Request: fold
Amino acid sequence: MPALAQVERLSTGVPEIDKMIGGGIPRGFFVAVTGEPGTGKTVLCIHFMAEGMRVRDLCIYVTTEESRQSVLRQASQFGIDFGKGIEDGKMIVIDSLMGIDEQWSLKSLDMEELVNKIIEAKKALGYGRARVCIDSLSAFWLDRPAMARRYSYFVKKVLAKWDFTVFITSQYAITTSDAFGFGVEHIADGIIRFRRAVRNGVLRRYLLVEKMRQTPHSLNLHEISIRDGKGIVVLGPVQERKEDVGLPRQVAERIIEAQEKKEAELP
Ligand SMILES: Nc1ncnc2c1ncn2[C@@H]1O[C@H](COP(=O)(O)OP(=O)(O)OP(=O)(O)O)[C@@H](O)[C@H]1O
Ligand SMILES: [Mg+2]
Reply:
């Protein structure tokens, strides 16, 4: 039987992205959504949650770099009402930015506290298929980037037992383009990579599915646009080579080498 037929898939909420990955994200997958600042990671998470609510999946959104209010406002600009989802008991937004003392906030960026809070949220929402976005997981290792892989592995292992399909965002610093999210990517079942470039004085955004296990996925870089009232729109495949919108290979290799050296020095 072909791979597509055997796998239950969850729509990302962006139909053109679903087409690139054989219909959607396989249930239970741990997907890294990576890219430079402002490229569309949070917007994709918002689509993934909105679609989840539509099909009655339990939805949990962990926000570490924006407040809950900011995420709600951003969603509403794309016509998505997270406030109502929360009221109706379909969604919980865990705020890890504000450090406030309330049920759905994290007081610190602690990995175990995060995972326990997500499980508590799932229990509160009910029984069944669930989606979680952790936006971003890299916030948890800001002070210890070499721990990225170990942290990601821990999260993946625990959440896998709870019927979650997981989006985790991680950043690529401009200077270390191909290496910062390095720890997540070997562990992830899928990698959706956003990129950006300035062409003729205009900021352009791109998306590339770099990995999706059990999926005959698109290998093309696609140009995307983020539109008011709508969110992510896929404009189509582009001709540029990956090298044209990334770092030169030698630079990327040097950064990865440095990262590996740092990891090897860990206890
Ligand atoms: N209402 C809107 N209309 C059009 N474009 C918008 C709108 N809201 C946000 N954007 C675009 O989306 C961008 C932000 O995208 P997003 O928040 O997904 O980035 P990100 O990849 O999560 O970045 P970061 O790593 O900084 O969190 C903005 O910089 C802007 O260009
Ligand atoms: Mg973001």
